[in-house]
Fold these 2 entries.
Entry 1:
Amino acid sequence: MRIWLFAVGAFVLIPALAEAKECVYSEKSFLARVVAFDSQKRHTYGGEKGGAGEATSEPPLLGEKEIVLSFEQGPHSAYTKYILDILDKHCVKATFFLKGSAVLANSVAVRDVARRGHTLAAGVWSKANAAKPEDARNELESALAAVAKASKEPVAPFLRMSQRALAPEFQAYIEERGVSLWYADIESGDGDQGLTPTAFANRTLARLKEAGKGVLALRDTSKMTVDALDSILINMEIEGFKIVQIVPTANFEPKAEVSEKLSLPAAVAPPRVARPAADQRVEQQRRDAPRPLARETPRVAAPAAQPQRRLSERENAARQTGSGVDSRQ
Protein backbone atom coordinates (compact mmCIF):
# COMPACT_ATOMS: atom_id res chain seq x y z
CA MET A 1 0.00 0.00 0.00
CA ARG A 2 1.21 3.51 -0.81
CA ILE A 3 0.22 6.68 0.99
CA TRP A 4 0.47 10.10 -0.60
CA LEU A 5 2.01 12.61 1.77
CA PHE A 6 1.93 16.36 1.61
CA ALA A 7 5.39 17.80 2.19
CA VAL A 8 6.20 21.46 2.62
CA GLY A 9 6.73 22.43 -0.98
CA ALA A 10 6.28 18.97 -2.56
CA PHE A 11 4.32 15.75 -2.67
CA VAL A 12 6.27 12.61 -1.81
CA LEU A 13 5.65 8.89 -1.48
CA ILE A 14 6.62 7.09 1.72
CA PRO A 15 6.13 3.31 1.22
CA ALA A 16 7.46 2.67 4.74
CA LEU A 17 4.10 3.73 6.16
CA ALA A 18 2.40 0.64 4.73
CA GLU A 19 1.93 -0.72 8.25
CA ALA A 20 -0.59 2.09 8.90
CA LYS A 21 -2.96 0.60 6.29
CA GLU A 22 -5.50 -0.45 8.92
CA CYS A 23 -6.21 3.26 9.52
CA VAL A 24 -7.98 5.29 6.85
CA TYR A 25 -6.26 8.54 5.92
CA SER A 26 -9.04 10.73 4.60
CA GLU A 27 -10.30 14.28 4.93
CA LYS A 28 -13.53 12.75 6.19
CA SER A 29 -11.86 10.63 8.87
CA PHE A 30 -10.41 11.63 12.24
CA LEU A 31 -6.91 10.79 10.97
CA ALA A 32 -6.91 13.29 8.12
CA ARG A 33 -3.50 12.97 6.49
CA VAL A 34 0.23 12.43 6.85
CA VAL A 35 2.60 15.35 6.30
CA ALA A 36 6.27 14.91 5.42
CA PHE A 37 8.37 17.59 7.11
CA ASP A 38 11.75 18.57 5.64
CA SER A 39 14.09 19.43 8.53
CA GLN A 40 16.81 20.47 6.10
CA LYS A 41 14.69 23.38 4.93
CA ARG A 42 12.82 24.25 8.11
CA HIS A 43 14.60 24.05 11.45
CA THR A 44 11.89 25.04 13.94
CA TYR A 45 8.19 24.49 14.21
CA GLY A 46 5.46 25.27 16.73
CA GLY A 47 5.01 27.54 19.68
CA GLU A 48 4.82 30.83 17.79
CA LYS A 49 2.55 33.52 19.16
CA GLY A 50 0.74 33.59 15.84
CA GLY A 51 -0.36 30.00 16.40
CA ALA A 52 0.80 26.66 15.05
CA GLY A 53 4.30 27.81 14.24
CA GLU A 54 3.31 29.68 11.10
CA ALA A 55 5.49 32.75 11.69
CA THR A 56 7.60 31.81 8.68
CA SER A 57 7.76 32.33 4.93
CA GLU A 58 7.15 28.60 4.40
CA PRO A 59 3.69 27.40 3.29
CA PRO A 60 1.33 26.61 6.19
CA LEU A 61 1.85 23.11 7.53
CA LEU A 62 -1.58 22.70 9.13
CA GLY A 63 -5.04 23.75 8.12
CA GLU A 64 -7.75 24.96 10.46
CA LYS A 65 -8.67 22.44 13.16
CA GLU A 66 -5.71 20.22 12.27
CA ILE A 67 -3.80 18.95 15.30
CA VAL A 68 -0.47 17.19 15.69
CA LEU A 69 -0.63 14.90 18.72
CA SER A 70 2.68 14.73 20.56
CA PHE A 71 3.83 12.93 23.70
CA GLU A 72 6.99 13.74 25.61
CA GLN A 73 9.16 12.69 28.57
CA GLY A 74 8.42 9.00 28.02
CA PRO A 75 8.36 6.19 27.51
CA HIS A 76 6.83 4.97 30.74
CA SER A 77 7.13 1.27 31.50
CA ALA A 78 3.34 0.94 31.94
CA TYR A 79 1.50 4.14 30.96
CA THR A 80 2.85 4.26 27.40
CA LYS A 81 1.13 0.96 26.56
CA TYR A 82 -2.24 2.28 27.75
CA ILE A 83 -1.76 5.40 25.62
CA LEU A 84 -0.89 3.32 22.56
CA ASP A 85 -4.00 1.20 23.10
CA ILE A 86 -6.19 4.32 23.25
CA LEU A 87 -4.59 5.74 20.09
CA ASP A 88 -5.21 2.41 18.33
CA LYS A 89 -8.84 2.51 19.43
CA HIS A 90 -9.31 5.88 17.71
CA CYS A 91 -7.02 4.95 14.80
CA VAL A 92 -4.83 8.04 15.14
CA LYS A 93 -1.06 8.47 15.02
CA ALA A 94 1.17 10.68 17.13
CA THR A 95 4.75 11.86 17.44
CA PHE A 96 6.62 10.58 20.50
CA PHE A 97 9.47 12.84 21.66
CA LEU A 98 11.15 10.20 23.79
CA LYS A 99 13.54 11.15 26.57
CA GLY A 100 17.02 9.67 26.23
CA SER A 101 17.44 8.33 29.76
CA ALA A 102 13.91 6.81 29.76
CA VAL A 103 14.47 5.29 26.32
CA LEU A 104 17.37 3.08 27.37
CA ALA A 105 15.49 1.93 30.48
CA ASN A 106 12.30 1.05 28.54
CA SER A 107 13.42 -0.19 25.13
CA VAL A 108 10.44 -2.59 24.89
CA ALA A 109 8.04 0.36 25.08
CA VAL A 110 10.05 2.22 22.43
CA ARG A 111 9.78 -0.71 20.03
CA ASP A 112 6.05 -0.89 20.71
CA VAL A 113 5.66 2.78 19.73
CA ALA A 114 7.48 2.07 16.45
CA ARG A 115 5.59 -1.15 15.77
CA ARG A 116 2.25 0.65 16.00
CA GLY A 117 3.19 3.15 13.33
CA HIS A 118 3.88 6.32 15.32
CA THR A 119 6.66 8.77 14.58
CA LEU A 120 9.80 8.31 16.68
CA ALA A 121 11.52 11.53 17.73
CA ALA A 122 13.50 12.66 20.76
CA GLY A 123 13.47 14.97 23.70
CA VAL A 124 16.72 16.08 25.26
CA TRP A 125 18.57 13.64 27.50
CA SER A 126 18.03 15.78 30.56
CA LYS A 127 18.18 19.57 30.19
CA ALA A 128 20.47 20.92 27.53
CA ASN A 129 22.30 24.04 28.63
CA ALA A 130 21.95 26.58 25.83
CA ALA A 131 24.90 28.51 27.28
CA LYS A 132 27.19 25.54 26.58
CA PRO A 133 26.99 24.58 22.90
CA GLU A 134 29.15 21.48 23.36
CA ASP A 135 26.80 20.08 26.02
CA ALA A 136 23.79 20.89 23.85
CA ARG A 137 25.34 19.07 20.88
CA ASN A 138 26.01 16.01 23.04
CA GLU A 139 22.40 16.09 24.26
CA LEU A 140 21.11 16.20 20.71
CA GLU A 141 23.32 13.36 19.45
CA SER A 142 22.77 11.12 22.49
CA ALA A 143 19.01 11.63 22.59
CA LEU A 144 18.36 10.73 18.95
CA ALA A 145 20.94 7.91 18.94
CA ALA A 146 19.30 6.36 22.01
CA VAL A 147 15.89 6.24 20.32
CA ALA A 148 17.42 4.65 17.23
CA LYS A 149 19.33 2.05 19.26
CA ALA A 150 16.41 1.13 21.51
CA SER A 151 13.85 0.92 18.71
CA LYS A 152 16.10 -0.59 16.03
CA GLU A 153 14.09 1.58 13.66
CA PRO A 154 14.70 4.84 11.75
CA VAL A 155 14.24 8.00 13.81
CA ALA A 156 12.91 11.35 12.65
CA PRO A 157 15.33 14.29 13.03
CA PHE A 158 12.81 16.01 15.31
CA LEU A 159 13.90 17.29 18.73
CA ARG A 160 11.74 18.72 21.52
CA MET A 161 13.47 21.39 23.60
CA SER A 162 12.20 23.96 26.07
CA GLN A 163 14.82 26.64 25.34
CA ARG A 164 14.22 29.17 22.60
CA ALA A 165 17.21 31.49 23.04
CA LEU A 166 19.73 29.06 21.56
CA ALA A 167 23.42 29.79 21.25
CA PRO A 168 24.37 30.65 17.64
CA GLU A 169 26.87 27.76 17.59
CA PHE A 170 24.19 25.27 18.57
CA GLN A 171 21.72 26.69 16.06
CA ALA A 172 24.34 26.26 13.33
CA TYR A 173 24.99 22.67 14.46
CA ILE A 174 21.27 21.84 14.29
CA GLU A 175 21.11 23.06 10.72
CA GLU A 176 24.27 21.13 9.85
CA ARG A 177 22.78 17.88 11.21
CA GLY A 178 19.43 18.46 9.49
CA VAL A 179 17.49 18.50 12.77
CA SER A 180 14.37 20.56 13.46
CA LEU A 181 13.29 21.81 16.89
CA TRP A 182 9.64 21.32 17.80
CA TYR A 183 7.70 23.41 20.30
CA ALA A 184 4.14 23.08 21.56
CA ASP A 185 1.31 25.36 20.44
CA ILE A 186 -1.11 23.90 23.00
CA GLU A 187 0.30 22.94 26.40
CA SER A 188 -2.06 20.50 28.09
CA GLY A 189 -0.69 21.12 31.58
CA ASP A 190 -1.22 17.48 32.54
CA GLY A 191 1.12 17.95 35.46
CA ASP A 192 -1.10 20.55 37.14
CA GLN A 193 -2.40 19.54 40.54
CA GLY A 194 -6.01 19.44 41.70
CA LEU A 195 -7.65 18.46 38.39
CA THR A 196 -9.91 15.49 37.80
CA PRO A 197 -9.57 13.66 34.46
CA THR A 198 -12.89 15.18 33.34
CA ALA A 199 -11.82 18.71 34.25
CA PHE A 200 -8.48 18.20 32.55
CA ALA A 201 -10.14 16.89 29.36
CA ASN A 202 -12.53 19.86 29.27
CA ARG A 203 -9.71 22.35 29.79
CA THR A 204 -7.63 20.74 27.04
CA LEU A 205 -10.55 20.93 24.62
CA ALA A 206 -11.05 24.61 25.48
CA ARG A 207 -7.38 25.31 24.73
CA LEU A 208 -7.66 23.47 21.42
CA LYS A 209 -10.66 25.57 20.44
CA GLU A 210 -8.81 28.74 21.38
CA ALA A 211 -5.70 27.81 19.35
CA GLY A 212 -7.64 26.46 16.38
CA LYS A 213 -4.74 24.27 15.19
CA GLY A 214 -1.20 23.30 16.15
CA VAL A 215 0.94 20.88 18.13
CA LEU A 216 -0.71 19.52 21.28
CA ALA A 217 1.81 18.47 23.96
CA LEU A 218 0.91 15.66 26.35
CA ARG A 219 3.09 13.51 28.60
CA ASP A 220 2.99 9.72 28.45
CA THR A 221 4.48 9.66 31.94
CA SER A 222 1.34 11.27 33.38
CA LYS A 223 -1.48 9.22 34.87
CA MET A 224 -3.74 12.20 34.16
CA THR A 225 -3.04 11.85 30.45
CA VAL A 226 -3.84 8.14 30.55
CA ASP A 227 -7.14 8.73 32.35
CA ALA A 228 -8.30 11.64 30.15
CA LEU A 229 -6.95 10.79 26.68
CA ASP A 230 -9.94 8.75 25.52
CA SER A 231 -12.34 11.56 26.45
CA ILE A 232 -10.10 14.18 24.81
CA LEU A 233 -10.02 12.28 21.51
CA ILE A 234 -13.76 11.59 21.53
CA ASN A 235 -14.57 15.27 22.03
CA MET A 236 -11.97 16.41 19.51
CA GLU A 237 -13.67 14.32 16.85
CA ILE A 238 -17.11 15.61 17.87
CA GLU A 239 -15.85 19.19 17.56
CA GLY A 240 -14.52 18.54 14.07
CA PHE A 241 -10.78 18.47 14.80
CA LYS A 242 -8.53 16.35 12.57
CA ILE A 243 -5.33 14.52 13.50
CA VAL A 244 -2.28 14.96 11.26
CA GLN A 245 0.73 12.67 11.52
CA ILE A 246 4.14 14.24 10.94
CA VAL A 247 6.88 12.15 9.34
CA PRO A 248 10.35 13.14 8.08
CA THR A 249 11.41 13.40 4.46
CA ALA A 250 14.76 11.94 5.61
CA ASN A 251 15.67 10.04 8.78
CA PHE A 252 18.32 11.02 11.30
CA GLU A 253 21.68 9.24 10.99
CA PRO A 254 23.27 8.71 14.43
CA LYS A 255 27.01 8.92 14.78
CA ALA A 256 28.54 5.48 15.28
CA GLU A 257 30.81 6.63 18.12
CA VAL A 258 27.82 8.01 20.02
CA SER A 259 25.71 4.86 19.58
CA GLU A 260 28.56 2.64 20.75
CA LYS A 261 28.69 4.44 24.09
CA LEU A 262 25.02 3.75 24.77
CA SER A 263 24.07 0.47 26.40
CA LEU A 264 20.67 -1.11 26.90
CA PRO A 265 20.09 -2.65 30.34
CA ALA A 266 18.79 -6.18 30.70
CA ALA A 267 15.05 -6.42 30.27
CA VAL A 268 13.10 -6.34 33.53
CA ALA A 269 9.44 -6.91 34.27
CA PRO A 270 7.50 -3.61 34.29
CA PRO A 271 6.20 -2.45 37.67
CA ARG A 272 2.57 -2.99 38.48
CA VAL A 273 0.64 0.28 38.37
CA ALA A 274 -2.95 1.33 38.67
CA ARG A 275 -4.95 0.95 35.51
CA PRO A 276 -6.62 3.95 33.80
CA ALA A 277 -9.66 5.35 35.54
CA ALA A 278 -12.01 3.90 32.93
CA ASP A 279 -10.74 0.40 33.68
CA GLN A 280 -11.04 1.05 37.39
CA ARG A 281 -14.69 2.02 36.97
CA VAL A 282 -15.39 -1.18 35.05
CA GLU A 283 -13.69 -3.18 37.77
CA GLN A 284 -15.70 -1.34 40.45
CA GLN A 285 -18.93 -2.03 38.57
CA ARG A 286 -17.97 -5.68 38.41
CA ARG A 287 -17.38 -5.75 42.14
CA ASP A 288 -20.64 -3.88 42.87
CA ALA A 289 -22.79 -6.05 40.60
CA PRO A 290 -25.41 -8.09 42.48
CA ARG A 291 -24.26 -11.59 43.08
CA PRO A 292 -26.52 -14.70 43.06
CA LEU A 293 -27.79 -15.64 46.46
CA ALA A 294 -26.10 -18.56 48.13
CA ARG A 295 -28.17 -21.72 47.98
CA GLU A 296 -29.56 -22.61 51.38
CA THR A 297 -29.00 -26.12 52.63
CA PRO A 298 -32.41 -27.65 53.38
CA ARG A 299 -32.92 -28.29 57.04
CA VAL A 300 -33.73 -31.84 58.05
CA ALA A 301 -35.80 -32.31 61.16
CA ALA A 302 -33.98 -34.08 63.95
CA PRO A 303 -35.41 -37.48 64.91
CA ALA A 304 -37.97 -37.29 67.65
CA ALA A 305 -36.63 -38.09 71.10
CA GLN A 306 -37.74 -41.46 72.40
CA PRO A 307 -39.85 -41.21 75.56
CA GLN A 308 -37.84 -42.26 78.58
CA ARG A 309 -39.25 -45.28 80.39
CA ARG A 310 -39.91 -44.74 84.06
CA LEU A 311 -37.79 -46.95 86.28
CA SER A 312 -39.48 -49.23 88.74
CA GLU A 313 -38.67 -49.21 92.46
CA ARG A 314 -36.81 -52.52 92.13
CA GLU A 315 -34.61 -51.09 89.29
CA ASN A 316 -33.80 -47.99 91.31
CA ALA A 317 -32.85 -50.13 94.29
CA ALA A 318 -30.68 -52.36 92.09
CA ARG A 319 -28.77 -49.33 90.72
CA GLN A 320 -28.08 -48.07 94.19
CA THR A 321 -26.79 -51.51 95.38
CA GLY A 322 -24.96 -52.21 92.08
CA SER A 323 -26.68 -55.55 91.60
CA GLY A 324 -28.36 -56.50 88.32
CA VAL A 325 -32.11 -56.88 87.96
CA ASP A 326 -34.23 -58.13 85.16
CA SER A 327 -36.62 -55.33 84.21
CA ARG A 328 -38.99 -57.84 82.70
CA GLN A 329 -39.84 -59.28 86.09
Entry 2:
Amino acid sequence: MSNVITKDYTDYFKGRDWVHMLGFYAQDWRKFMTDHNRVFGSGPFFYTTNTFSRLLFYGDEVDCTGLEFHAAYGTWGSHTIEVVEPVPFSVPTMFSEINSEGEPGFNHLHIFVEDLEEAQDACEFLKIPVITVGYPDMANAIEKAKATGTDVEAIKKNAGKASFMVCDMRKELGFAVQLIAPRAQALHNAIIGAKDKWDGSAETMFIPLGGK
Protein backbone atom coordinates (compact mmCIF):
# COMPACT_ATOMS: atom_id res chain seq x y z
CA MET A 1 0.00 0.00 0.00
CA SER A 2 1.40 3.36 -0.95
CA ASN A 3 1.97 6.08 1.66
CA VAL A 4 0.65 8.86 -0.57
CA ILE A 5 -2.67 8.18 -2.29
CA THR A 6 -3.23 10.32 -5.36
CA LYS A 7 -6.14 8.43 -6.92
CA ASP A 8 -9.74 9.36 -6.16
CA TYR A 9 -11.44 6.26 -4.69
CA THR A 10 -14.76 7.93 -3.86
CA ASP A 11 -16.71 5.44 -6.02
CA TYR A 12 -14.52 2.39 -5.39
CA PHE A 13 -17.29 0.24 -3.92
CA LYS A 14 -20.13 1.49 -6.13
CA GLY A 15 -21.49 -1.18 -8.47
CA ARG A 16 -19.62 -4.02 -6.76
CA ASP A 17 -21.85 -7.00 -6.09
CA TRP A 18 -21.23 -9.19 -3.09
CA VAL A 19 -20.22 -12.80 -3.75
CA HIS A 20 -23.40 -14.16 -2.14
CA MET A 21 -21.31 -15.87 0.54
CA LEU A 22 -21.97 -15.17 4.20
CA GLY A 23 -19.12 -15.70 6.66
CA PHE A 24 -19.80 -16.99 10.17
CA TYR A 25 -17.80 -17.80 13.30
CA ALA A 26 -18.36 -20.95 15.34
CA GLN A 27 -16.45 -22.73 18.08
CA ASP A 28 -17.16 -26.06 16.34
CA TRP A 29 -17.32 -25.69 12.56
CA ARG A 30 -18.57 -29.23 11.92
CA LYS A 31 -21.44 -28.93 14.42
CA PHE A 32 -22.37 -25.53 12.94
CA MET A 33 -22.59 -26.89 9.40
CA THR A 34 -24.37 -30.05 10.51
CA ASP A 35 -26.98 -27.94 12.31
CA HIS A 36 -27.24 -25.57 9.33
CA ASN A 37 -27.87 -28.53 7.03
CA ARG A 38 -30.52 -29.92 9.37
CA VAL A 39 -32.43 -26.62 9.39
CA PHE A 40 -31.87 -25.35 5.83
CA GLY A 41 -30.81 -28.40 3.81
CA SER A 42 -27.55 -26.65 2.91
CA GLY A 43 -24.44 -28.41 1.65
CA PRO A 44 -22.28 -30.15 0.72
CA PHE A 45 -19.35 -28.55 2.54
CA PHE A 46 -15.69 -28.40 1.63
CA TYR A 47 -13.49 -28.26 4.72
CA THR A 48 -9.87 -27.28 5.22
CA THR A 49 -7.44 -25.60 7.60
CA ASN A 50 -6.03 -22.23 6.59
CA THR A 51 -2.65 -21.14 7.94
CA PHE A 52 -0.82 -17.87 7.47
CA SER A 53 2.68 -16.58 6.84
CA ARG A 54 1.74 -13.10 7.98
CA LEU A 55 -1.25 -11.40 9.59
CA LEU A 56 -2.06 -7.74 10.24
CA PHE A 57 -4.59 -6.48 12.77
CA TYR A 58 -5.51 -2.81 12.29
CA GLY A 59 -2.16 -2.42 10.55
CA ASP A 60 -0.04 -4.04 13.27
CA GLU A 61 1.83 -7.32 12.83
CA VAL A 62 0.29 -10.24 14.72
CA ASP A 63 2.18 -13.33 15.79
CA CYS A 64 0.24 -15.90 13.76
CA THR A 65 2.54 -18.81 14.62
CA GLY A 66 0.28 -21.78 15.25
CA LEU A 67 -2.90 -19.92 14.25
CA GLU A 68 -5.30 -22.12 12.30
CA PHE A 69 -8.59 -21.21 10.67
CA HIS A 70 -10.58 -24.45 10.54
CA ALA A 71 -12.99 -23.56 7.77
CA ALA A 72 -15.88 -25.05 5.82
CA TYR A 73 -17.59 -23.70 2.70
CA GLY A 74 -20.83 -24.87 1.12
CA THR A 75 -23.99 -23.97 -0.72
CA TRP A 76 -27.09 -22.52 0.91
CA GLY A 77 -29.82 -22.47 -1.70
CA SER A 78 -28.57 -20.23 -4.52
CA HIS A 79 -25.99 -18.69 -2.17
CA THR A 80 -22.94 -19.94 -0.29
CA ILE A 81 -21.88 -20.04 3.32
CA GLU A 82 -18.54 -20.08 5.15
CA VAL A 83 -17.86 -20.89 8.78
CA VAL A 84 -14.50 -20.51 10.51
CA GLU A 85 -13.31 -21.91 13.81
CA PRO A 86 -10.17 -19.88 14.65
CA VAL A 87 -7.72 -21.68 16.94
CA PRO A 88 -6.70 -20.11 19.22
CA PHE A 89 -9.53 -17.58 19.35
CA SER A 90 -7.36 -15.18 21.37
CA VAL A 91 -5.16 -14.25 18.38
CA PRO A 92 -6.41 -10.83 17.20
CA THR A 93 -8.43 -11.30 14.00
CA MET A 94 -11.81 -10.22 12.63
CA PHE A 95 -13.35 -13.02 14.69
CA SER A 96 -11.98 -11.89 18.06
CA GLU A 97 -12.92 -8.32 17.09
CA ILE A 98 -16.54 -9.00 16.10
CA ASN A 99 -17.65 -12.26 17.73
CA SER A 100 -17.81 -13.59 21.27
CA GLU A 101 -15.84 -16.76 21.93
CA GLY A 102 -18.07 -19.82 22.05
CA GLU A 103 -21.11 -18.05 20.58
CA PRO A 104 -21.75 -18.77 16.87
CA GLY A 105 -22.63 -15.74 14.80
CA PHE A 106 -22.35 -13.73 11.61
CA ASN A 107 -18.97 -12.13 10.88
CA HIS A 108 -18.80 -10.77 7.33
CA LEU A 109 -19.94 -10.93 3.72
CA HIS A 110 -17.61 -11.21 0.72
CA ILE A 111 -16.69 -9.07 -2.28
CA PHE A 112 -14.18 -9.85 -5.01
CA VAL A 113 -11.71 -7.07 -5.86
CA GLU A 114 -9.14 -6.87 -8.64
CA ASP A 115 -6.20 -6.06 -6.40
CA LEU A 116 -5.97 -6.14 -2.61
CA GLU A 117 -3.24 -3.51 -2.40
CA GLU A 118 -5.47 -1.10 -4.28
CA ALA A 119 -8.37 -2.10 -2.03
CA GLN A 120 -6.28 -1.14 0.98
CA ASP A 121 -5.58 2.23 -0.62
CA ALA A 122 -9.29 2.68 -1.29
CA CYS A 123 -10.19 1.88 2.32
CA GLU A 124 -7.57 4.36 3.55
CA PHE A 125 -8.90 7.01 1.16
CA LEU A 126 -12.48 6.38 2.30
CA LYS A 127 -11.44 6.18 5.96
CA ILE A 128 -12.77 2.65 6.31
CA PRO A 129 -10.81 0.76 8.99
CA VAL A 130 -9.17 -2.51 7.92
CA ILE A 131 -9.43 -5.10 10.68
CA THR A 132 -7.41 -7.99 9.28
CA VAL A 133 -5.11 -8.59 6.32
CA GLY A 134 -4.06 -12.20 5.77
CA TYR A 135 -1.10 -13.58 3.84
CA PRO A 136 -1.35 -17.34 3.17
CA ASP A 137 1.18 -19.98 4.06
CA MET A 138 2.46 -20.97 0.63
CA ALA A 139 2.63 -24.75 1.08
CA ASN A 140 -0.90 -24.76 2.44
CA ALA A 141 -2.15 -22.60 -0.45
CA ILE A 142 -0.55 -24.82 -3.10
CA GLU A 143 -2.10 -27.98 -1.67
CA LYS A 144 -5.55 -26.41 -1.77
CA ALA A 145 -4.94 -25.09 -5.28
CA LYS A 146 -4.27 -28.62 -6.47
CA ALA A 147 -7.48 -29.82 -4.80
CA THR A 148 -9.62 -27.19 -6.55
CA GLY A 149 -7.91 -27.24 -9.95
CA THR A 150 -6.43 -23.78 -9.50
CA ASP A 151 -3.29 -22.91 -11.46
CA VAL A 152 -0.44 -23.69 -9.03
CA GLU A 153 2.00 -21.48 -10.94
CA ALA A 154 -0.38 -18.56 -10.54
CA ILE A 155 -0.46 -19.22 -6.80
CA LYS A 156 3.34 -19.20 -6.69
CA LYS A 157 3.45 -15.90 -8.55
CA ASN A 158 1.35 -14.38 -5.78
CA ALA A 159 3.73 -15.49 -3.03
CA GLY A 160 4.08 -12.73 -0.46
CA LYS A 161 0.82 -11.08 -1.46
CA ALA A 162 -2.26 -10.84 0.73
CA SER A 163 -5.11 -13.25 -0.04
CA PHE A 164 -7.85 -11.46 1.90
CA MET A 165 -8.64 -8.42 4.01
CA VAL A 166 -11.59 -7.55 6.18
CA CYS A 167 -12.75 -3.94 6.32
CA ASP A 168 -14.95 -2.58 9.08
CA MET A 169 -18.16 -0.95 7.89
CA ARG A 170 -19.99 -1.55 11.17
CA LYS A 171 -20.14 2.12 12.20
CA GLU A 172 -22.09 3.19 9.12
CA LEU A 173 -23.71 -0.04 7.91
CA GLY A 174 -23.53 -2.54 10.74
CA PHE A 175 -21.39 -5.20 9.06
CA ALA A 176 -17.86 -6.09 7.99
CA VAL A 177 -16.78 -6.99 4.45
CA GLN A 178 -14.11 -9.47 3.47
CA LEU A 179 -12.38 -8.46 0.25
CA ILE A 180 -10.84 -11.37 -1.62
CA ALA A 181 -8.43 -11.77 -4.51
CA PRO A 182 -9.62 -13.10 -7.89
CA ARG A 183 -7.62 -16.33 -7.41
CA ALA A 184 -10.26 -17.45 -4.90
CA GLN A 185 -12.80 -17.72 -7.75
CA ALA A 186 -11.91 -21.36 -8.40
CA LEU A 187 -12.91 -22.35 -4.88
CA HIS A 188 -16.18 -20.43 -5.15
CA ASN A 189 -16.97 -22.16 -8.45
CA ALA A 190 -16.20 -25.57 -6.92
CA ILE A 191 -18.58 -24.86 -4.04
CA ILE A 192 -21.41 -23.88 -6.40
CA GLY A 193 -20.77 -26.83 -8.72
CA ALA A 194 -20.78 -29.42 -5.93
CA LYS A 195 -24.43 -28.83 -5.09
CA ASP A 196 -25.79 -30.46 -8.24
CA LYS A 197 -23.52 -33.49 -7.85
CA TRP A 198 -24.34 -34.16 -4.19
CA ASP A 199 -26.64 -37.05 -3.31
CA GLY A 200 -27.79 -35.29 -0.13
CA SER A 201 -26.49 -37.94 2.24
CA ALA A 202 -24.79 -37.28 5.57
CA GLU A 203 -21.99 -39.63 4.55
CA THR A 204 -20.94 -37.38 1.66
CA MET A 205 -21.81 -34.02 3.22
CA PHE A 206 -18.21 -33.09 4.11
CA ILE A 207 -15.52 -33.00 1.41
CA PRO A 208 -11.82 -32.53 2.29
CA LEU A 209 -10.29 -29.63 0.42
CA GLY A 210 -6.63 -30.14 1.17
CA GLY A 211 -4.36 -27.96 3.23
CA LYS A 212 -3.06 -28.83 6.65
